[in-house]
Each structure stands twice: as C-alpha cells, then as structure tokens.
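Record type: ASSEMBLY
Status: queued
Input:
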Amino acid sequence: MRELGLIVVPLAGAGLAALWPRDRTRPWLLPFIGLIHVGLAFWLLVDPPAVTPGTWLGFDPLARAVLPAVSLLFLVCAAYAVSYLGLRTERRNRVFVASLLAMLGLLSAGHQARHLGLLWIATEGVTLAAVPLLHFNGTARAFEATWKYLLVGGTGIALSLLGSFCLGYASLQGGGGGDLTFAGLTAQGSSLSHPWVLTAWVLLLVGYGTKMGLAPMHTWKPDAYGEAPGIVGAMLAGGVTTVAFTAILRVRAVINAAGEGAMADHTLLAIGIFSMLVAALFLLVTRDFKRMLAYSSVEHMGILSIGAALGGAGLWAALFHVWNNSLTKGALFLSAGNIRRAAGARTVDEVAGMAIRTPVSARIFVTGLLAVTACPPFGPFFSELRIVRTAFATGHAAVAAGFLGCLLFAFFGLTRLVFAIVDGRPRPAARATGPRLRETAGTVLPPLALLGASLWLGLATPSVLQETWTAAVQALLPTP
Amino acid sequence: MSGALNLLVGLAMGLNLIALASARLPSLIRTAAVQGMVLGVLPLLIERQVHLLVVLVAAGTVAVKGVVIPALLRRALRAANIDREVEPLLDYIPSLLLGAAATIGAVALAGLLPLLPEHTGALLVPGSFATVVAGFLLLIGRAKAISQVCGYLILENGIYLFGLLLIRSMPLVVEAGILLDLTVGVFVIGIIADRIQREFDTLDTRKLTVLRE
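Status: finished
Output:
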C-alpha cells in the first residue's frame, strides 16, 4: 500500500491545491506533500516491499533504484518554490501548484508502471501536466516554447504509443494472451515476433527518446528549459527525463529477452554518442545560460544511454548517473533561476558580474558547473569514470575516446559561458532589478542542499543505494 | 465483415490524400472530422458480438473526433479571424506525391511484417502506417497552428487504427485511459493554439521564431 501512497498522496495534494482558497499559503502544500513523498520513498528504499510478478504497478528494483532521487529533487524544488512563488505574487499560482503536484504523482506512477499501456498513460500524463508549468511566465516566448514542446513531445509520445501497440502485437503473434505487463512480455522471450519487436523498438526509442531529449529529438528542450521557471526546468531535467529513461530500460529488457539485445545496444550507443556530440557542439556556440543547461541535459541523456548500452556494469553506472544528474542539474537550474532574476536577462551579451550581484548563487553556479562537468569529488565524476572504464573493459575503446572528447568540448563550452556571466562588472539591466530580488535563505539553501547531496554521493555512495542499483541491473539483465 | 472493414479503412486512406491536398482550413478540419467518424465506427465491425461497452467507446470516439474537436477548431478559426488559406510550407503537389508514396510504402511494409491469420487481408496495418505518415507530413508541412493540430489529429487516427488490432486482447481500462489521454492532449493543444493567437495576433507558426540559436 505504501507504494500506492507515492501516487495517491501527490494527486490528492493536487486536488487540494486546486481547491485551496489563498494564493499566499497555497505554495506551502508543495514542501508538505514533498516531505511525505520523500519519507515514503526512502522508507520503501530501505525496506522494499515484495512485488508480485504479474502486477501492473509495483515498487520493483528499477523503481527503487531511481524514484527516490526524483522524490528528493522534488522536495528541494518544493522548498525553493515557496520563496519563488512569494516573489512572483503578480501571477496566480493555483494551476502551477496543482500541476506540479500532479506531475509528481504521475512521475511516481510512471516509475512504478510494470504494464506497457499504463507506462504510456503515466508518461503522457506527465507531458500534459508540464504544459501549464512551462507557460507560467505568460510571455509570448513562453507560449512559443510551450507550442514547440507540445508538438514535438506530442508526436514523440504518439510514436511511443504506436511502438507499444507493435510490441503488443509481437506478443499476440508469439501466442501471448494479451498480457502486456513487462514481466509477461519478458517471459515470452524469443517467441515474440522478431519483425514486430524491431519495429516496436525503433518507435519506442524515438518516442521515449523524445521525452528524454536524445538528439536529434531534443529540439524542444532548449526552448522549454529556457522559458520555464527554474523549478520546472529542474523537474523536467531530473524527473521527466528519468521516467523516460526507465521506460527505455524496461522496454530494452523485453527486447533483450526476445534475443535482439545486441541490436538494441548498438542503437542506444549510436544515439547516445550522437546526443553527446550535438550537445557539445551547441554548448560551444550558445550565448544563453538557461539554454546552456538544456544542452548540458541532452549531453547527460547521451551519457545515460551509452551507459545503458554497455551491459551490466555500464547500466549500474547509468543508474548511479541518474542520481547524479538529477541532483546536480537541480542545483544548476535553481541557482541559474536566481541569477536570471537578479540579472533581468539571460545571454552573455547582457549579463556579467553576477559574482557581485548574487555572490552566493554565483558560487553555487560555478561549483555546480564543476560538478556537472565531472570534476572530482562530485558524484558525476565517479559515474562517468565507471562508464569510461566499462567501455574500455568491453572493448569499446572508440566509444570511450568519443565520450571523453565530447566531455572535453562540453567543458569548454560550459566554462566559457559560466565565467562570462560570473566575472566582470554588473550590467545596467542587473542594477535596475533592485533589492527586491536579493538572495534569501529560501532561494539559496535549496540549490546548496542539492550540491551537498551530489558531493555526498561522490565521496561516500551509501551502500543501500549501491545495493539497489545492483538489484535493478540483476532484474533488467538477468545473468544466467 | 472484412469487406466492409477494408472499405472504411480504404476510405480513411483516401481522406489522408484529401487532407494533404486541402488548400483551405475549413475543408482540412472537415476532412479530419470525417476521418475520425469513419474510424469511430470500426470497433463495431471488428468485435464479433456487439456489447454495450464497445458501443459506448464507438459513440465516444465519433463524438469527440468527429464533433467536439472540430467544433473547437472552427471556433478558434472564427475567433482568430484569420485568412482561410492553409499556407503550405511543403507545396500541395509534393505533399500529395509523398502521401501517395507513403501509402504504397505502407502496403509494401505491411506485406513484410507477419500478421495473425484473422488480420491477413485486412488493410488495418497499411492504413495505420499511411495515416501516421500523412499526419506527420501535415504537422511539418503546414504553417498555421490549426492545420498542425489537424495533422496531429490525423496522426492519432493512424495510431487508433493500429490499436484496433489489439482491441480483443487489451483490457478496456487501458484503452479508455489512452483515449482519455489523447483527448485531453488535443484539448490542451487547442487551448495553447488559442493563447498563441492572443499573444501573437496570429496562428502562423512561422512567426514563432524568437527562440533559436
């Protein structure tokens, strides 16, 4: 029952937020629900329930390996949201708070979905719940970003539905009785019809890859991350991409059981390298520091799919990287939000000297940059190191070389932009924003907490987490 | 039974080409609506015995795809007071040729994929693939938000066609959930299109060019 609480509590919270009469007190629902959610998620992490194989929803090893990270990210974002919405009293927050909570509930459902159709419904629900969050600012640019998100994301999600149908048909061909749970499909193994499995894999990879933001389906990401508030960017980059990644992992386990695992690995590897390359090139040219975060997210999605393509050890590192990506990206998005508000602009042409205007956020931003570009001793360094070592160990030296090359270019691109924003003298636009947007504990402590968590993951990865990742790898790629 | 089914799927495939050739928004909306209604009837032909739930799903599909969403789009069209031209980014003749090529390709591709005995000879698989491609062509090849919504509707119709292959094996709960999600999705798209019109005073997505590298 606890695992259902992860879904029901946030959805009930969303309903409550929709009915709550006062704008001023409504945001407090976010950390309240977030706290319950984190409590439940970590209780389940430490004391996992037994999952009956045929069930549609369950806190299985994969959900246990990644969902607590999303929950933690949400709690920190929720704490930040109280201060943020306090600064944005000119806009009504009823829809915003309700959608954010609904998104958490649907994300929990998506991570726990063990049924092909249910997984799709939850992912589509998350996509739709994000729409009001994206155009919270109500500007023309925000609507433009939302439109692109809807069309690209909508097409992607439609293709993943077609892929789900194809996989269902592959099961019918193999004599299946219409059992569309992942356990049922995996049990069918090589009796699944191979042509249909291949069609399904292509469509599902493109579909869920769009949600994840793998290149070349990443085009919605820079616009959406650039225009949305920092919390929304953090939840999209750390939560929505994670649910899409787990969807791809679950589908891949079925493809693997059908005997087409090598083909799936090749496509994941190719799309991962391509994403990293595209992201690295765009990071070298972009002039907008919020769009920069989007390209950095594309890069990290590439890292995840490369890790997932390299067998058991690589998958373990990818699950570790999911945690690192969620927490580190969250710190970057929240501190970037502070800088963006105080600066009144987003491009290097208009912003400089933020170390003087927002000293703490600027420091967090620079430290977050070091963390996200895999400088030790932050978590991402260790997960990426493991991926490189696995690539060498499995005879993918060229992949490792490309991986490191892209990381280097991304490092150049990111440092170029971040230091241009932090150093120098403040521009007139920043002076005009006034003292109302000074840093407060409420806007500085949340990103600091996320950064601390990233450091902690790097220095002393808790053994319970390592054990959950091992269990998830074992469940997804059973070694005979 | 299979004859009537193939006739309707063939009709839907013909409507794809009409949609690709439509030069005016009202006729594009009408084509998408008619296609939605044609597809809504199909579950009645596929199920061996007609029971209440199937009738409800069919009636719901016809009402939503054929009446509610088109009415919403027509309202947006009137409110926006925009020029009725479709304004193709990809001209009509190339779109039609691509659509026709996709139809032939879909038939060829479906021939390569193995089908269950009860589905051989049915046009569901080629019809589905051809409709998805036609929807995609409209989505990328038309400038106005409303024609893109119509493209998305047609793309969804294609997926719905494929879903009919699974109608007997999928639990109805899942189908209902999928139908609900798709409906809400189209509504949300419609609302955003409306907001874009108010913000930009146009539904021409070519004007949405502030965000680029």
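Annotation: The mean pLDDT of chain A is 91.
Annotation: The radius of gyration of chain A is 21 Å.
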